[in-house]
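Obj.: predict assembly geometry.
Materials: sequence records (below).
Method: joint structure prediction, all chains together.
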Amino acid sequence: MNEQSHPAPASNVSLERRAWNIRRKALLMGEVQGQGYIGQALGIADVLAASYFHAMTHRPADPEWEGRDRFLLSIGHYAIALYAVLMEAGILPEEELETYGMDDSRMPMSGMASYTPGMEITGGSLGHGLGIAVGMAMGLKRKNSDAFVYNLMSDGELGEGSTWEAAMSASHHKLNNLICLVDFNDQQADGKSTEMLSAEPVVPKFEAFGWHAQRVNGNDLAAVVAAFDAARAVTDDRPRVIVFDTTMCKGVPFLEQRDITHFVRVEADEWSKALAVLEEGKPA
Amino acid sequence: MTHNSHARRYEPRKVTPKEDRVATSAMIASLAAEGYDTEAAPFGNALVELAKTRPEIVGLSADLAKYTDLHIFANAMPDRFYQMGMAEQVLVSAAAGLAREGFIPFATTYAVFASRRAYDFIAMAIAEENLPVKIVCALPGLTTGYGPSHQATEDLAIFRGLPNMTIIDPCDAVDIRQMVPVLADHNGPVYSRLLRGKVPAVLNRYKPDYQFTLGKAQMIREGRDVLMITSGFMTMRALDAAERLAKDGVDVAVLHNPTIKPLDRETILAEARLGGRLVVTAENHTVVGGLGEAVATTLLTNGVTPTFRMIGLPDEFLEAGALPTLHDMYGISVDGIVRQIKGWV
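Observations (raw C-alpha cells):
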C-alpha cells in the first residue's frame, strides 16, 4: 500500500473533534497569556486538523523523521495555533500548555524552530516561508523523497515580493512536492487585507505563475479535506496552492463580530466565556 | 517641487585626448595586479574539485554564475546547480531550505545584492538557524567603476552585526582556492567576498607555506616601524606599498586578516602589544563598521593603545570611472597607501 494514500495515524477521533480540540487548546493558551493571536488560531483550526490528521505523513514520536511531510509555519504569530495542533497530535506534551509565552517556555509567542519540536522553521518575518519551502522541495527531490512540503502563509504575505519570487521559482523548478496553504481571512495589522494591498484575484495569479490552484471555504471541513486530496492527487509538474477563505475567531460568535480581529482584544473575563461558548458546539 | 539636495554633476565636460583616456572598469573585469601571476577562476575550480568527493555540495546563483565563476561548477555538475534567476530573496531562502535537507549550498551573487537586497532572508532563514549556507559574492568594496549600485562598500559592516555569521575577505587566488574546503567544513553560515576571473596569486610569493586558516590572522611580512593589519586585496596593496616604503627606510609589517568575523583578537593584540609600531588598518570597505573599527575596538577594550590609523573608503557614495583612478582618489592604491603612511610616520 502506498503510504501516501493513507498517511495520517489511524484514529477514531473525528476531524471535527480534532478542530474543536485545537480551538479549545488555543483558547486555553490565550487565557494563560491574557492575549494572543486567537482570532487566527480559531480561523485556521479546521485547516490544521485536516493537515495533521488527514493529509500529512508524520510520526508524532519522531518529529524529525526523515520521511515526514514538512509543515512550515511562515506566519510566525500563528504559533499559538500550531502549538495547539502539535499538542493534539502528541508532538508537544499538553502539560506545557500553561507555559505558553512565559519566560523559558518552549512555546514563544512567535514560532521559532530552535524552541519547539515540530516547528520546522523560524517564521514571523513575513514572506520567508515559501522561499524556504522551495529549497526544501528541491532538497527532497534530490533525495528522491516522496514527502511533501506544506507552507502555511497568510493573505497578508501575498503582499511581499519575495512570495512571488518563490512562486515563480517553484513552478520553474517543477516543484510538484510543494503545497502552499494560504489563510485568506482578509485581516492584517492595519485592517482588511484587500483594502491594504489587494492580492485578488488570488487563484488566477497563482495559475498565471504556473501553479495548480484551488480556493475553498477553510471552515468547511469536508471542502478542506477534498482540497487537500485534490492537491495531493495532481499528477503533473505544477506546485499546488490552496487558498482557504476563513473567518477570524471561528467558533466563538461574540469574538467573530469584533471589528479589529488581527490582534483581537479579549477581556480577562471573556476567556472563560469563549470556552463556554465553544463547549456548546462540542462535536462528538 | 523637485528634490534638489543631492549634488548633481551636470556641468559640461571637456573631452580627454584619446591617448589619455581611461575607460570605466567593467563589472566583469579581473582585478589588475601588476607583477603577480594569476590563476583563472580559483573559486569555481576549487568548488568543482571539492564537490567531486562531497555529494552534499550544491550551487545556486541569481543570474550571476558567470560573473562569480560558479559557471565552472554549473558546467561540470549541471545536476547540482540551480539557476535561480534574478531573484536574490528566493536565492538565499532556497539555499536555507536545501541546507535544512542536509545539503551544503554555495550561493553566489554580487556583494551589493546579497547584503542590501537579501539581508532579512540571510538573517532569519540562514543565520538565526545557523544553517551551513555559504554566500560567496563578487564585486566587494570598490572593485567596479559602475558606481554605488554595484559597489559593495558597506557589506562587511552589514554582516558584522549578524550573529552566527562568519565573514571572509580573501586576498587572492591562494586564499580563495584554499578557503573553499574550509568553508564547506565549517558548520554554520559564511559570507565571503570573492575576486573572480584572473585572480592574482600573492600570498604564496611572500610565504610559500601559506595556508588559509579560518579565524586566523597571519604575518606575511615582518617589519619594525609600522604594523599594517589588512584584509582582501588590500593585503596585496599593503605588501606592494611595504616594498616601496622599505626603499625610504620605513619597515612595514603586514598582518593579513582574511577572517573579519570572528576576529583573531589574540594575534592582533599580541602584534599590537609589541610596541613602538604605528598600527594601520587597510581595507577595501568604508571606514564605518569594517576591519578598522573591529581592530580599534579590540585594541581599546583590551587597553592596548598604539598610535592608530585607518586606511579605507570614505563614508560616501563613491564615484563612477576607472578603478585605478578611483583607487587613487580614495587612497586605496599602492600610491595612496605609501602617501598616507609617509604622512603618519
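Conclusions so far: Chain A touches chain B through 31 residues (CB under 8 Å).
To do: check interface contacts against the pulldown list.
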